[in-house]
C-alpha cells in the first residue's frame, strides 16, 4: 500500500506489538525535529552491536572502541550493547547483583553465537566479512568504514510519542526504499537505555579490576516487536520510491530511566538477517 508522502517520508501500516533519574553528560544529543523535507540529508547508517557483560574484564576495551567510532562518524553509527551469557552477564557476588540480560539479547546471542566464541566481540550490520559474521572489536572501525562507502538502500524516520505519566510509548517508523531490493525485508524495534551506572570488571583497572561506578552505554533493554520484528510488508521485493509505515506500542518498566531511553529501528533482509539500514531516536 503506497502513499504520496514527501521524498523522505513514508507510509504503509504494519502493527507491531510490544509488550531516579541520572543526570550525567553521557548521552549524545539527538535530533528532535520529527519533520522531513525534500532537502533532508539521507545517509547510510551502520548498526554496531557490542556483545558484552559486566563480568567481562576485556569488554570495556570494546566499549571504548565503539565510543571512538561513534565520535568519529556521529549519527552514521547506531550503537547497541547486549549483555549476554551466564559466564559474562549473570549476577555475581556483591559487586554485580544486577541482571542486564534480556530475552531479546539472549535470542540474538543464541542465533549469532557471540558469547560462545568468547567476549568481547560484535556484529557490523550483521554482515558476513570473509566468511565471518562475528567481528572482533579491533576490526569494527575498518568494517564500518567499508560499509559507509556504500549508498543507502533505504531511509527510516522515527517519530516517538511518549506519555511520562502512563509511561506508554507509541512509535511510528517511516521507511522509504531508495534502491530496488529483490528480496523480502523485515523491521525490528529495539529499546536501549544509556548512562546506566553499575559495576563493571575491567582488566585495565588495577589492582582489583573493578570499576564500581562504570557508565554502561546503549544497553539493550528489550524490544517492541520481538527479537526479529515483523515483515515490512507481504512483498517479496521492493521498488525504489515505495513507502511504508510501521507502528508499535510499549509500556516502559518503572525501573528504566525514561530520560535515557532510545528506540533503535533495524531494517534487514529477512533471509540472512543482514541489516539494510538502522536508525535511532530518543523517546523524549
Question: What does it look like?
Answer:
Strands 7, 10, 11, 13 and 14 form a five-stranded antiparallel beta sheet that branches. This protein has a four-stranded mixed beta sheet with strand order 1-12-6-5, with no helix packed on it. It has helices at 59-73, 86-89, 103-112, 140-148; strands at 13-16, 46-52, 77-83, 121-124, 154-163, 168-177, 185-193, 196-201, 210-216, 219-223, 230-231, 243-251, 261-269, 275-282. It starts with 12 loop residues before the first strand and ends with a strand. The protein is mostly beta strands. The chain contains four helices and 14 strands.
Record the SSE blueprint.
Blueprint: E1 13-16, E2 46-52, H1 59-73, E3 77-83, H2 86-89, H3 103-112, E4 121-124, H4 140-148, E5 154-163, E6 168-177, E7 185-193, E8 196-201, E9 210-216, E10 219-223, E11 230-231, E12 243-251, E13 261-269, E14 275-282
Parallel strand pairs: 1-12, 2-3
Antiparallel strand pairs: 2-4, 5-6, 6-12, 7-10, 7-11, 7-13, 8-9, 13-14
Amino acid at each position: 500500500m503506497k502513499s504520496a508522502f514527501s521524498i523522505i517520508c513514508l507510509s504503509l501500516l504494519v502493527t507491531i506489538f510490544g509488550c531516579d533519574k541520572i543526570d550525567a553528560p553521557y548521552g549524545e544529543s539527538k535530533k528532535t525535529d520529527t519533520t522531513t523535507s525534500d532537502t533532508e540529508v539521507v545517509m547510510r547508517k551502520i548498526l554496531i552491536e557490542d556483545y558484552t557483560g559486566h563480568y567481562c574484564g576485556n569488554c570495556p576495551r570494546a566499549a571504548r572502541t565503539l565510543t571512538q567510532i561513534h565520535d568519529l562518524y556521529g549519527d552514521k553509527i547506531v550503537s547497541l550493547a547486549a549483555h549476554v551469557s551466564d559466564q559474562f552477564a549473570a549476577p555475581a557476588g556483591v559487586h554485580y547483583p544486577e541482571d542486564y540480560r534480556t530475552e531479546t539479547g539472549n535470542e540474538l546471542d543464541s542465533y549469532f553465537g557471540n558469547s560462545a566464541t568468547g567476549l568481547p566481540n560484535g556484529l557490523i550490520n550483521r554482515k558476513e566479512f570473509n566468511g565471518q559474521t562475528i567481528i572482533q572489536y579491533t576490526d569494527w572501525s575498518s568494517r564500518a568504514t567499508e560499509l559507509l562507502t556504500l549508498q543507502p538502500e533505504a531511509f527510516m524516520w522515527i517519530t516517538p510519542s511518549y506519555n511520562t505519566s502512563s509511561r506508554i510509548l507509541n512509535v511510528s517508523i517511516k521507511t522509504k526504499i531508495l534502491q530496488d531490493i529483490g528480496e523480502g525485508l523485515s523491521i525490528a524495534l529495539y529499546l536501549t537505555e544509556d548512562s546506566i551506572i553499575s559495576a563493571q570488571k575491567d582488566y585495565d583497572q588495577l589492582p582489583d579490576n573493578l570499576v564500581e561506578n562504570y557508565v554502561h552505554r546503549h544497553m539493550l533493554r528489550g524490544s517492541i516487536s520481538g527479537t526479529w520484528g515483523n515483515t515490512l510488508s507481504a512483498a517479496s521485493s521492493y521498488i525504489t520510491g515505495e513507502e511504508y509505515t510501521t507502528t508499535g506500542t510499549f509500556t516502559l518498566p518503572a525501573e528504566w530511566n525514561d530520560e535515557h531511553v532510545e528506540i533503535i529501528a533495524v531494517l534487514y533482509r529477512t533471509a540472512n538477517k543482514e541489516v539494510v539500514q538502522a536508525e535511532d531516536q530518543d523517546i523524549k
